[in-house]
Prior knowledge:
By secondary structure, the protein is mainly alpha-helical. It contains 4 helices and no strands. The longest helix is centred in the middle third of the chain and has 35 residues, at 16-50.
Amino acid sequence: MMTLDQHIPRTSSVSPAEQSARASGWSALTAWIRACGNAYVASAIYEDLSRLSDAELQRRGLSRENLARDAFKSCERRD
Protein backbone atom coordinates (compact mmCIF):
# COMPACT_ATOMS: atom_id res chain seq x y z
CA MET A 1 0.00 0.00 0.00
CA MET A 2 1.31 3.47 -0.92
CA THR A 3 1.22 6.39 1.43
CA LEU A 4 -0.23 9.76 0.52
CA ASP A 5 3.26 11.22 0.13
CA GLN A 6 3.98 8.73 -2.61
CA HIS A 7 0.87 9.77 -4.57
CA ILE A 8 1.49 13.50 -4.49
CA PRO A 9 4.38 14.65 -6.68
CA ARG A 10 7.00 16.69 -4.89
CA THR A 11 7.45 20.27 -5.92
CA SER A 12 10.76 21.97 -5.81
CA SER A 13 11.11 24.71 -3.27
CA VAL A 14 11.04 28.23 -4.61
CA SER A 15 13.90 30.50 -3.67
CA PRO A 16 13.19 33.87 -2.04
CA ALA A 17 14.44 35.58 -5.22
CA GLU A 18 11.93 33.64 -7.32
CA GLN A 19 9.15 34.45 -4.85
CA SER A 20 10.06 38.13 -5.07
CA ALA A 21 10.08 38.02 -8.88
CA ARG A 22 6.68 36.32 -8.94
CA ALA A 23 5.25 38.85 -6.49
CA SER A 24 6.66 41.67 -8.58
CA GLY A 25 5.10 40.17 -11.70
CA TRP A 26 1.71 39.88 -10.03
CA SER A 27 2.02 43.43 -8.75
CA ALA A 28 2.78 44.71 -12.24
CA LEU A 29 -0.12 42.72 -13.70
CA THR A 30 -2.61 44.04 -11.15
CA ALA A 31 -1.36 47.60 -11.71
CA TRP A 32 -1.87 47.17 -15.47
CA ILE A 33 -5.39 45.78 -14.98
CA ARG A 34 -6.23 48.66 -12.65
CA ALA A 35 -4.91 51.17 -15.22
CA CYS A 36 -7.03 49.55 -17.94
CA GLY A 37 -10.09 49.81 -15.70
CA ASN A 38 -9.36 53.47 -14.98
CA ALA A 39 -8.96 54.18 -18.69
CA TYR A 40 -12.27 52.46 -19.42
CA VAL A 41 -14.06 54.57 -16.80
CA ALA A 42 -12.41 57.75 -18.11
CA SER A 43 -13.51 56.86 -21.63
CA ALA A 44 -17.11 56.46 -20.46
CA ILE A 45 -16.95 59.79 -18.63
CA TYR A 46 -15.58 61.47 -21.75
CA GLU A 47 -18.32 59.96 -23.93
CA ASP A 48 -21.03 61.22 -21.57
CA LEU A 49 -19.55 64.71 -21.24
CA SER A 50 -18.77 65.09 -24.94
CA ARG A 51 -22.49 64.93 -25.71
CA LEU A 52 -23.15 68.06 -23.64
CA SER A 53 -23.36 71.52 -25.16
CA ASP A 54 -20.54 74.01 -24.72
CA ALA A 55 -22.77 76.04 -22.40
CA GLU A 56 -23.46 73.02 -20.19
CA LEU A 57 -19.78 72.12 -20.09
CA GLN A 58 -18.93 75.69 -19.11
CA ARG A 59 -21.59 75.58 -16.37
CA ARG A 60 -19.76 72.54 -14.98
CA GLY A 61 -16.41 74.30 -15.16
CA LEU A 62 -15.18 72.33 -18.17
CA SER A 63 -14.16 73.23 -21.69
CA ARG A 64 -14.37 71.10 -24.82
CA GLU A 65 -10.69 71.75 -25.55
CA ASN A 66 -9.58 70.09 -22.29
CA LEU A 67 -12.40 67.58 -21.93
CA ALA A 68 -10.40 64.43 -22.71
CA ARG A 69 -7.51 65.45 -20.47
CA ASP A 70 -9.86 66.35 -17.61
CA ALA A 71 -11.79 63.08 -17.93
CA PHE A 72 -8.65 60.96 -17.83
CA LYS A 73 -7.09 63.06 -15.08
CA SER A 74 -10.17 62.50 -12.92
CA CYS A 75 -9.56 58.73 -13.09
CA GLU A 76 -5.84 58.74 -12.37
CA ARG A 77 -4.82 56.54 -9.51
CA ARG A 78 -3.74 58.43 -6.42
CA ASP A 79 -1.49 56.48 -4.05
